[in-house]
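Continuing the batch. This is chain 6 of the set; chains 1 through 5 are on the previous pages. Same settings as before, nothing changed between runs. Recording input and output for traceability.
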Amino acid sequence: QVQLVESGGDLVQPGGSLRLSCAASGIMFSIYHVGWYRQAPGKQRDLVARITSEGITNYADSVKGRFTVSRDNTKNTGYLQMNSLKPEDTAVYYCNVVRALGQSGYWGQGTQVTVSS
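Output for chain 6:
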């Protein structure tokens, strides 16, 4: 059974940092691409960052230079380091793993990130 468990969400002040984790089980994690998405209330779920199985990364323009996506295949875990957080980063963050881009893959349950003073 495939399971993705996100953690690391919290309430943080503007300018602060958080690191989200996505622990995978039930799959050969190393061959999957890992994407991080976020969904704010009343908005669609958007891609924030992705790291492919080969380690290639890409980011949404809104987070470039502030967020860093990474993975540790030995721990079957993906990470999203978020720095210089802004109120507009407030959302539920989800991780998603796919074998090939365009597939629906598997989703985690989400973790809440709130940026507020």
